[in-house]
C-alpha cells in the first residue's frame, strides 16, 4: 500500500512539473529589446575599438533579439551625427523583422568621425524600449567634408575621383605624376611651364552656382622664366579666364589672385579676389568692399607662394554676397558685395556664373593655363598665348583639387588643411 501511495505521489509531482513547464513555455509576457549585432560597412560596431577606414558610402545594419516596431524606426529615434560640427546626416531607415538598416542619403565626408545614436523611443513589437545606445566610427582617408562635386587627386591619373569631370582623350598634355608634399599625399600633377595642360570639358557646370568652394594644394617653381629671361607669372588654372574663373600667382611671388565672373540683376561682371603683399582693407586705406585683409610682408608672401606647398581655398556665399580667401587654413582676405557703392549692380550679385563666348574662350576648365587651348583670347600676346613657351604657363605641382557647391566653414577648411599638410 505504501508503494502504491508513493507511486501516486510521484505521478502527481511529475504532472505538476509538466503543467509548470507548459506555463513557462507559453509565457506571453513582453520581451525586452536588446541588440545582438551592429555593423557599418561590414565592420563590427560592437567591437572594443571603434571601426576606422570605413567607406564613405557604407551601410549600417543593426540586428535585435526581437522584431522592431517599424513606426518607431524614425529619424526622431535614430540619428547619425557628424562629430566636428554636430550636424545631422540625412538617413534612409528601413526595417525587416529584427533587422534595422540605415543608409546615409549622401556620401559621408572622408577622415571624419561619426556617431550613431539609438534612443529609447525605438520599440520592439512588444512595445519594449531599447536602452539609449551610441556607437562611433571614422571614415577612410584624410579629412574632407561631404558633398564634393569634383575631386582630382592625381594619383597617376587626371580623372575626377568624385564625379564625372574627366579630361577628354587629348586633354592631358605633358603631365607627369610625381611625389607630392608628403608620403600620405601620394602623387601630384607636375607641370613643365611650357606645354603642360589638363583640360576638363563642361567646366561651366562647376561654377554655375550660388554657393561655391574650391580648395587645392599648389607649389610654384621659381625658375619659371619668360622670353626675356625674367620671372614669369603662373596661370595655375582657368575656366575662360575672368569670364569664368582663374587663379594666378604673380611673377615676383608677392601676391596672387582669383578672377571670377558673378551673376547680378543686370547680367554679370568679373571681380578679383586680389591678394598682394601688404594688403589693405576698408579700415586701412583699401577698397570699401574689402572687409578684411591680412597684411603680409613681401617676404612672408613669397615664403608662401615661392617653391613651397600652399593650401589655397576660396569660398563664395551667394545669399551673403561674400567671398573669402584662405591660405593654409587661415583667412587672408574677404570682400562683401553689400559694401559696394549704392546703386552698383554688384550689390545684387546672387552667385557665380560663366559668361564666356567662343571663339575667345571655351567652357573647358584648364589646369596649367588661363584657359583651354581651344580659346583664341590673347593668342598673340607673349604672356597669354598658349603656343608661346615663355607665356605664363604654370610651372610646378598641383594636388587634391576639390570643388563644392556649398560654402565650407572656417572649421572645415582648417581641419582639411591640418589633415592633409
Tally of alpha and pi helices: 4
Helix content range of the residues, please? 10-25%
Mean pLDDT: 93
| Regions with little confidence, pLDDT below 50 for 5+ residues | 1-5, 7-26
Give the distance, in angstroms, between the N- and C-terminal Cα atoms: 96 Å
Keywords: Lectin, Signal
Protein name: Concanavalin A-like lectin/glucanases superfamily protein
GO molecular function, one term: carbohydrate binding
Pfam families: Big_5
List the topology elements:
Blueprint: H1 2-25, E1 35-40, E2 43-44, E3 60-64, E4 78-82, E5 87-88, E6 91-96, E7 99-104, E8 113-118, E9 133-138, E10 148-152, E11 172-173, E12 176-179, E13 187-192, E14 197-200, H2 204-207, E15 212-220, E16 234-239, E17 245-249, E18 255-264, E19 267-276, E20 290-293, H3 298-305, E21 310-317, E22 322-327, E23 330-336, E24 351-352, E25 365-367, E26 395-404, H4 410-420
Antiparallel strand pairs: 1-2, 1-3, 3-7, 4-5, 4-8, 6-7, 8-9, 10-26, 11-14, 12-13, 13-26, 14-25, 15-21, 15-26, 16-17, 16-25, 17-18, 18-19, 18-24, 20-23, 21-22, 22-23
Quick overview:
This protein has helices at about 1-25, 205, 300-305, 410-420, and strands at about 35-40, 45, 60-65, 80, 85-90, 90-95, 100-105, 115-120, 135-140, 150, 170-175, 175-180, 185-190, 195-200, 210-220, 235-240, 245-250, 255-265, 265-275, 290-295, 310-315, 320-325, 330-335, 350, 365, 395-405. With about 425 residues, the chain is mainly beta. It folds into two domains: about 35-140, Immunoglobulin-like, CATH 2.60.40; about 150-420, Jelly Rolls.
